[in-house]
Structures are given as structure tokens and as C-alpha cells.
Amino acid sequence: MLKEPEYLTNINAKIMEMQEIVESIGEQVQDALKNKSSGLKPVATELCREAQIKEELIVEMCVGSLIRHQPFASDLRAITVAMKVSYDLSRVCRYLRNITEVLEEVNIKNCEVKEVCELLKDAREMVRQSLKAYFEKDQESATNLIKSDESIDGRYRMILRKYAVQKAGGNCILFNGITARIVERMADHACYISQETIYLVTGRRIDYR
Amino acid sequence: MAIISRRGKERLIKYICFLATAVAVIPLLWIIGEVVVNGVSAINLEFLTSLPAPFGESGGGIGNAILGTMIINAMACLFGIPVGILTGMYLSEYDRISRLGAVVRTVVESLSGVPSIIFGIFAYSLIVLTIRHYTAIAAAFALGLMMIPLIAKATEESMRVVSNDIGEAATALGIPKWIRTTKIVLSIAKGGVLTGCLLAFARISGETAPLLFTSLFSFFWPTGIDQPMASLQVLIYNYAMSGFENWILKAWGASLLLVIIVVSINVLVRHLTKPKYKAGV
Amino acid sequence: MTMTNNTKLDIRNLNAWFYEKPALKNVNVKIPDKMVTAVIGPSGCGKSTFVRCINRMHELVPGAKVSGKVLLDGVDVYGGMDVMDVRRKIGMVFQKPNPFPNMSVADNVVAGLKLVGTHSKKELAELAEERLKSVGLWDEVKDELKKSGASLSGGQQQRLCIARALAMNPEVILMDEPTSALDPASTAKLEELVKKLKNEISVIIITHNVSQAARVSDYTAFFYLGELVEFDETRNIFEHPKNPLTERYITGRFG
Predict the structure, then answer these.
(1) B173 and C157: CB-CB below 8 Å?
(2) Is C112 in Cβ contact with B179 (below 8 Å)?
(3) Which domain holds residue B174?
């Protein structure tokens, strides 16, 4: 592909900054989950706000580039994809914050959380990989990543089935159900990022449904 | 050079140009001045309308020369203008690149540099010797030939410019070539063509050498175009060297007339070429 | 949007030369009917030559040579038709507006008919009005119909030239960078007109302004060094061109 114009490099730098925030929240949430601790919500909210500001800035930069440079072909696709990726990242942020909200409200001291912990770890890895594929414009990685969403889906449904038949421990059922759902949505957004990456490279949109 | 500052250099160049212009213009103005001063006293109605008086007598005029010049010039135009325009049209529209076109163009251009006396001799040997007497027709022929290169060149150049821009539009509309050439290109270029004709006319008004071999001179009113005819140019030639004061004065008067004609034509041309061809964009 | 349209111009193996130097190399393309096709490419790529081969104007240039077929509704313009007919059926508008300065606005519109045919004055006047209306010029010039064609503004002159070409009822109209010499407002008006024209006839427009091609055309042809590199629906060319050369050109990497 062509050498990236400067305005695109700047936009991608901002996306990288968003990624750092997401990583930071993700790590903290992972720890909180492992240690079954709460109190993370204010920090998460603050970090999420930062991420949202960055997203708004990215959209502004994209619109500004559209006006100024009137890009076509791969440049045009890069701008539209950048806007979508930043949105997907902001959703990931939001979901991580949602987890801290649930941690706040539900006491999980006596709950089994290993499955959702693993799920969260893998989903975070998916987000990381999808962004790597995006920055490197790696069509193959992106395609593989979309395939791996199936396994996340499978594990999510397993968790649902497991807790659907439990009779006692309402807090644990609630917690695991909601958190698994949140993490599954996170993985979905990692998929969307990969789909956009494939569009960025090939110019075609594939129907993934 | 440190001695002359930059501003000094500017002024120096300016003055040199001015001086050169003065050297060019002053003699011209001087000539015109002399002609006016010496000739104006000769101009009166009798001068303009009557025949020359007998030798030594005072009075009389150059009426026959004026009429003769008009007739000869008119005939020259009748011959030179159509041929010149058609030649220019040919060069511009029908033959821009072939060998033949290049040859024609070269010949036409060279002709404009040929000394006028050659035209005179040519017309002399072709016509005068053939019909065995001096005749105004030969003069018209020679002068007409001299007009052709000027008119052809002016026509070709004005038509070519128009042809490139506007002519393309006509072609693209599917308009046949002869209509395009005449009704559009020539019609738009007519200013340039007219200018060429006027300048050619001004030129031949001043030529004397061809007339010496062809129309010669006459002291009478023109009797027929196949006969010798008086003309202003030859009159000046004869009278100026005659030694008769009366005639010398008449020569100055005739010179003044000629200068007036030529200068007015040039002024007219300048006036006509100014607000030309407003092409909008 | 798929290419299921009728073909107006079927161009086969078109080659063109200037004094033995090739200007167009083996061009094959089907120009669709009643659509706007843009022709883009860097300077000297042959787009002007290509278009001028369509209405047989290229051969008027000294040293020019053409081979191949240009089929207008199946009939080859090089041989199957009288050349004057070709130019009446395929009109052209040039980069620099060139109304006839020795004719009035109204006469300019119908020049192609008036100078050649035997239409009545009334017919010509009606046709002039109709055509001036169709290019959106009527209201602006209806009180000045007798003024010289060259007295209008640049944008108006160009629309007048379009009206003049349209008065011949062509089936195709070729436009060689028609807005190059115009200001942005006139350019916008002209682009609107171009988009409207495709309801009546096929339009081929050369433009060095890639954005203009994106704005007005349905199909785009990209030329480079005398060859047709890519021809596709405009949306495809500008979203995901197939050829890397096309990509480089429209993203401004060269040309």
C-alpha cells in the first residue's frame, strides 16, 4: 500500500493513546476481578472520560482531514476506518467501566470467577491483537481474529448455561452472567476492528453474519 | 561598478533609450515639417483640380496626377487585394504544413523584401514591351504585385489566430470547411485583413520606381487605362529636378498630399486596431 | 450499481500517433449510454487525444494518424459515416470558451444550423430559446440576445458553447476540461448542468481535477502514458481502485 500521509499518522498516534488508556483500565479491572476487590469505579470513570475526549478529538481530526485533503481510495478508507476504530475502542472502555460498576454493586467474595477472569483476559488479548493488525494493516491476522470470536462466543454460552441451572448464590449468578455478557461484547468490538482492518486493506466489505 | 549607483544605471539606460528614440523620430518630424512648411502654400483649389500650366507659366495644378494616382491605386487594389487575401486564406486554412505551403510562404515573404524597381522592370518587360507603349495597367500590375505579400501575410496571420481558437469550434459543429473559412474565420479576422490592406495601400502610395517604367507620365487628363498616366510620385520626381520655381513649389505641394495620405492611413490603422476582438475570457 | 447499461460508444483497438510517436496504445473501452464518463490522468497521458479521436478531430492535426474502430451505436465513425455527420452527432466543448465573436448570442446557439441549412428564422429563434433554457442561460441573457457572443462572462460563454453544441441534437457530447478557465461559482453551475445533461445524451468529460470526476461522473477512465489503465464505475475507482497506478494518481501521489 501507499505511504501513509502525515495527517493519518497523527490520527493513528491518537488512537494509540486511546489504546494505552484501554490497556490501563483493562489491567486494573483484571486485577480487581482476581482479587475480588471493589472501589475501582471512580478511577475507571475518569480514565474513560479521558478516552472519550480522545475519541472526540480523533473524529475532529478526521473531519478536518476530509475537508482539507479530500482524500480518495486508501486514504479515504483510512479516515473512515479510523473513526470507526476509535468508536470501537471507546465502547471497549465503556464495557470495562461497566464491569467496575458491577463489582461495586455486587459482593463476590464467595463467588467463583475463574471463568470470567479467563474470558476477560482473552478478550483483552483479542482487542490488543486486533489493534496490532490495524496498525500493521495485516489482513491475515485480522481474518484469523474474526474466526477466533467463535470460541469466545462458545465459552460465553457455556457460562450462561452453567449459571442458568444454579439455584443458590444469586449474587454470583448475576455477577457471572452480566460480566460474561460484557466481556463477550468487548470481544465483538475487537472483531469489528478487524473487519474494518480488512476493509481498509482490500476495499471490500464482507458480510460476516 | 561602484561609480554608477543602481539608480544611476536606471537613469542612464532611460536616457540612452530616449536619445535613440529622438534620433529616430526627429528626422521624421523634420521631413514632415519641411514638407508642410514648403508645400502648404501650394495647396489651393486650382492646384488640386487643374492641369499643369505650360512651361514657365505660373498657376496650373496637378489635378491629372491626383486622378491618375487614384486610378492606378484603385486598379492595383482590384488586383492585389483579392489575390493577397486568397493567398493568405490558402496558407492559413488549406496548407499549413506541406512542402508546397512552405515554398509558397517563403516566396511570399521574400517578395515583400524585393526592391520595388524590380517589380517595375518585370511589369515593363511583360506588358509595356509587349504592347509597345507605356500604360497604366502595367503600373497597376506592378503595384498590385507589391501589395500581395503584405496582404497575404496579414491575412494568413489574422486568420490563423482565429482559426486555432474559434475555427475548432466550427469544425466540431460539423460545419463544412468552406463555410467555416469564409463565414466564420475570415469574417472574424476581417479586422486584421483590413489592416493589411490599408498598410499595403499606404506602401504603394509611396512607390515611385515601378511607375517610371510603366505608367511613365502625362500632362493631360487620363484618357484610358492602357495609356501612360500621371501620378503624384512621378510628378514629384520630374518637377523637383526641373529647375522651374513654379514646378518645384508644386512638387512640394504634391509631397504634402502624399504625406497626408500615408500618415492618415497609418493613423486610421492604429485607431482601428485598438479596441479589437474582445474575446471575453 | 452494476454495469448493465447500454453501450453508446464501443471503442476497439484504438491507436493514435503524432508523427510516428504513439499517443494512444490499443485502447478498448465501452462508453455507456446516457451516463457521464470522466476521463482522468496526468498531463500528456493521452486523454485529449482519446477524446478527439472519437469525433475525428485528431486527424486534423498535422502529422496525426489513427487506427482502430470507434463504433457509435454499432456504426464505425471511421468509415461507416460521413465525417461531418460524425461531428454533428458527437458534439464538443473546449477548455477555453469559444463563442463566435462576430455573431449575436442567439445566432451563436444556432450557428451550426443557420450557416449550413435552410431553417426559417422562426424555427431558429425557437430553437435558440429552447437550448438556452436547457443550459440555464435563458433568464440571464434573454434581454441581450443581440449582443455579441463574446460579451458574456466566462461561465456564461461556456454554457453558450454547450447550448451551441446541443442545438445540433448530438447523441454524445465531449467536454475537454470545460471548467478549467472558470471561477468556482461558474464551475459549480456547469457541473450541475453536466449532471442534468445525462438524461438526454451521453457525456464524456476530460478533467484534470480528480474531485470533479468524483462529483459529476458515473464512470471514470484513467489514462496513463497513452494507455487506458482502468475503467470502472466512479464509486469503485474512488473507493477501491484495482490498479496501483490509479490509486497513486487519485490520491495525489503523482500527476
Answers:
(1) no
(2) no
(3) 45-50+63-273
Closest of C163, C157, C28 to residue C99, by C-alpha: C157
Burial C83-121 (b: 16+ CB within 10 A, else e): bbebbbbbbbbbbbbbbbbbbbbbbbbbbbbbbbeeeee
Domain assignment present for C90: yes
Classify B97 as helix, strand or coil.
coil
Asked, for residue C219, whether it belongs to a domain, the answer is yes
Residues C204-245 pLDDT 10s: 999 999 999 999 999 999 999 999 999 999 999 999 999 999
The ipTM of this complex is: 0.88
pLDDT in tens, C97-147: 999 999 999 999 999 998 888 789 899 999 999 999 999 999 999 898 999
Which subunits have 3 or more CB–CB pairs within 8 Å of chain C?
A, B
Q: Give residue A133's Cα distance to chain centre.
A: 14
Which residue type is seen at C67? S
Which of C112, C152, C153 lies at the smallest CB-CB distance from B174? Answer: C112
Residues 6+ positions from B191 with CB-CB distance below 8 Å? B158, B272, B273, B276, B277
Alpha-carbon distance B84 to B143, whole Å?
12
Measured between beta carbons, which residues in chain C are less than 8 angstroms from residue A66? none
Q: Given C214, C240, C248, which is nearest A204 (Cβ)?
A: C240
Find the residue in B nearest to C99 (Cα): B166
Note the pTM of the prediction, 2 decimals: 0.81
C-alpha cell at A160: 450462561
Report the alpha-carbon distance of residue C193 to residue C182 in Å, rounded: 14
**Per-residue cell: A19:** 489504546
Q: Of B177, B149, B148, which Cα lies nearest the Cα of B163?
A: B177
Instruction: Return the CATH fold of A6-202.
Output: Methane Monooxygenase Hydroxylase; Chain G, domain 1 (1.20.58)
Q: Is A192 helix (H, G, I), strand (E, B) or coil?
A: helix
- Residue B268, C-alpha cell as written in the block: 486610421
Tell me the one-letter amino acid at A83.
M
Beta-strand pair C64-72/C75-76: antiparallel
The ranges assigned to domains in chain A are 6-202
Chain C residues with CB inside 8 Å of A204's CB? 240
Q: Write the CATH number for B267.
A: 1.10.3720.10
Distance from CA of C118 to the nearest CA of B (A): 14
The domain of C195 spans 7-250
A/C touch flag: 3 or more CB pairs below 8 Å: yes
β-strand C90-93 against C172-176: which pairing, if any? parallel
pLDDT tens by residue, chain A, 209 residues = 678 899 999 999 999 999 999 999 999 999 999 999 888 999 999 999 999 999 999 999 999 999 988 999 999 999 999 999 999 999 999 999 999 999 999 988 889 999 999 999 999 999 999 999 999 999 999 999 999 999 999 999 999 999 999 888 889 999 999 999 999 999 999 999 999 999 999 999 987 76
Q: What's the number of domains chain B is made of?
A: 1
Strand arrangement of the beta sheet that strand C75-76 belongs to: C21-32, C7-18, C64-72, C75-76
Q: What is the CATH number of the domain that holds C92?
A: 3.40.50.300
What cell numbers appear for A26 in the block?
A: 483493562
Partners of residue C152 in chain B, C-beta under 8 Å: 280
Cα separation of C148 and B279, whole Å?
Answer: 10
pLDDT score, position B55: 73
Residue whose C-alpha is closest to residue C92's, from C16, C155, C24, C177: C177
Domain count, chain C: 1
DSSP-derived 3-state class of residue C206: strand
- B170 Cβ under 8 Å from any chain C Cβ: yes
Give the residues across from C32 on adjacent strands: C7
Q: How far is B184 from chain C (nearest CA, A)?
A: 8
Give domain status of residue C2, yes or no. no
